[in-house]
Amino acid sequence: MPIGMAKRPPPCAHLRPNLATTWAAPIPRYDRRMQSRRQLILKGTWATAALWATPITWVHGAAPSRGQPSVSLHYAVSGKKSGINYNAKSTLTWQRNATHYSAAWQVSLLFVFNRKQTSTGLLVNGYPEPRRFVDDGKRIREAVLDPTTKQVRYTEAGAASWEPNMQDRVSLFFALPKWIAEAKRSGQQTFLVPVTGANGRADWRMQIGSPETVVTPAGTWLATPVKRVVGPDDTAATLWYASENATFPVRILLTEPDGTFIDQRLDKQNKLPDLDPLKA
Predict the structure, then answer these.
(1) Rg of the chain in Å (alpha carbons)
(2) Model's pTM, two decimal places?
(3) Which one in 22, 52, 202, 226 has a CA-CA gap of 20 to 30 Å to 251?
(4) Is pLDDT above 50 for 279?
(5) CA distance 141 to 154
């Protein structure tokens, strides 16, 4: 290239949205003409990406308008187990078609520990209705949710009662936005969610907090915390959602009574193919 000549950027490079910072706060201001042009582009070529990278908009009582597209979410993990601090990675995956979903959460640290939880079931109005939950840790435990018999059957415990809107510990990540929106519409800051694990169920009382800044490897977010109100012997959980249109958490903090905790902060996200409708 002759000296003094600037290298031209690739065609349309300026039109590619940065998904890692789309929700980042504070929101940059754009020239009106550039903003209009960007909106047209998002409606066209980048419409799919826009579904899972929604800008922050705080509108009281606004319900999420669409379900979560298939995605793999990667989190940077800091934690403590048996008095030992560690750093690791975790993933939260979500795949769907028009009628069914499959979700999984997994965290591992070399040969120290590995845990995977999966949830599968129906998709109703974009939100999960779980039918099977599997917890694969030191051993495999399973819960089958059966609306016909109105029971939840466990491999290592007696059956429990099933009720509408029940979630498991993985589907809850993607179902909470619906509950949050409904609570805000009714002016409530707390709500109950029936949640099953692998060997029992409980009603989780969730409390909506005020928006706060959350720093993650993927960016800085203005996020609303949703915290499980617990007793001294229960697992505490707080999830931060970056907007009322958000369909997955940017931070997940799980704490056990013995001091064990897992703090997960969003690192990156990748689109996944949808479930095969013939195998649902």
Answers:
(1) 20
(2) 0.74
(3) 202
(4) yes
(5) 8
